[in-house]
């Protein structure tokens, strides 16, 4: 499942590549069932900061992060030595007004150099009707842009960080079927709109896969070795979960989320809900 030369060229030119077939429909549905089981048995567990690091408390999500097809594609971009650095659930319910403003992942995350990539796995179909991602092709070739911190109530980003004046006519929708994924560069400008459909739009995002040469310059990250070797030892390694919601894993995730929150809000006078 390594990317083809044409796919790699497209990624280099545009800052993203999609769609990539990763999971079957049944495997994708298993993820949705896991989400809805957790929501029913442990209400609020996946809300706020709880949407992060879900792979540390669920073997179902952990299995995705270590999926061979997915890692083969990631290796084509960042090389053999791969760490799972973090995960996030992006759920847009049909009766809510959640959106993601245009932004660059690298702006506040503190991962340098940019030898990393974000994998966006579609748990449900993602299309223009339910608020799929919009990419600004080629924007990754420029420097980091100014982000206005809006802290909008319905913005699914930490600070409501927003790149203004994005030329919408130049953006491209990332349309994915359930089980497909996209990969995007740390500095490509992207965002997503409202879910106007009658069903949930769910994305499981590995944000991000990093090369072992990537350091965290703002704080501490809790990682798993996904492939290769780590000669740098920049980060704290955590175990893979063997059962859902194990108390030790829950505590590990709590600590990881506390550190992540410190990173995301470095230099900010205000803290959001994520």
What is shown here, in short?
The protein has 274 residues and is an alpha+beta fold. The chain contains six helices and 16 strands.
CATH superfamily: q2cbj1_9rhob like domain
Helix content: 10-25%
Strand % is: 15-25%
Poorly predicted parts: none
Distance between the termini: 34 Å
Task: Determine the mean pLDDT.
Answer: 96
Q: Which fold name is given in CATH as the topology?
A: Jelly Rolls
Largest sheet: 8 strands, mixed
Structural class: alpha+beta
Q: Over all CA atoms, what is the radius of gyration?
A: 17 Å
Outline type: globular
Question: What does the model show?
Answer:
The structure is a single chain. The chain has one domain (5-264): Jelly Rolls (Sandwich). It is built from 6 helices and 16 strands. The strands form 4 sheets. Strands 1, 2, 3, 6, 11, 13, 15 and 16 form an 8-stranded mixed β-sheet that branches. It has a 4-stranded antiparallel β-sheet with strand order 4-12-7-10, with no helix packed on it. Strands 5-14 form a two-stranded antiparallel sheet. The two termini are 34 Å apart. The chain has helices spanning 5-14, 25-41, 59-65, 68-78, 106-109, 247-264; strands at residues 16-21, 82-84, 87-92, 100-103, 111-112, 116-122, 133-135, 148-149, 161-162, 172-173, 180-184, 190-192, 201-211, 215-216, 222-227, 236-237. 45% of the residues are buried. The longest helix has 18 residues, at 247-264.
């Amino acid at each position: 499942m390594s990317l083809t030369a044409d796919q790699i060229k497209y990624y280099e030119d545009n800052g993203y590549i999609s769609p990539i077939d990763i999971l079957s429909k049944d495997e994708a549905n298993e993820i949705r069932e896991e989400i809805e089981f957790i929501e029913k048995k442990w209400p609020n567990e996946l809300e706020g900061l709880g949407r992060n690091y879900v792979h540390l408390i669920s073997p179902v999500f952990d299995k995705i992060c270590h999926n061979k097809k997915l890692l083969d594609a990631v290796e084509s971009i960042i090389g053999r030595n791969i760490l799972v650095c973090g995960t996030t659930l992006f759920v847009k319910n049909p009766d809510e007004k959640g959106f993601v403003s245009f932004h660059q992942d690298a702006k506040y995350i503190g991962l340098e150099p940019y030898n990393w990539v974000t994998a966006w796995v579609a748990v449900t179909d993602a299309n223009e009707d339910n608020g799929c991602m919009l990419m600004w092709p080629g924007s990754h070739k420029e420097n980091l842009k100014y982000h206005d911190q809006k802290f909008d109530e319905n913005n699914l980003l930490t600070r409501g960080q927003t790149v203004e004046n994005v030329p919408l006519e130049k953006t491209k929708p990332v349309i994915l079927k359930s089980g497909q994924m996209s990969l995007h560069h740390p500095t490509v400008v992207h965002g997503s709109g409202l879910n106007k459909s009658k069903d949930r739009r769910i994305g499981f995002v590995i944000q991000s896969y990093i090369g072992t040469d990537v350091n965290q310059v703002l704080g501490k990250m809790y990682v798993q070795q996904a492939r290769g070797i780590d000669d740098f030892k920049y980060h704290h390694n955590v175990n893979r979960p063997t059962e859902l919601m194990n108390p030790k894993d829950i505590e590990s995730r709590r600590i990881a989320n506390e550190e992540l929150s410190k990173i995301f809000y470095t230099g900010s006078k205000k803290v959001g809900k994520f």
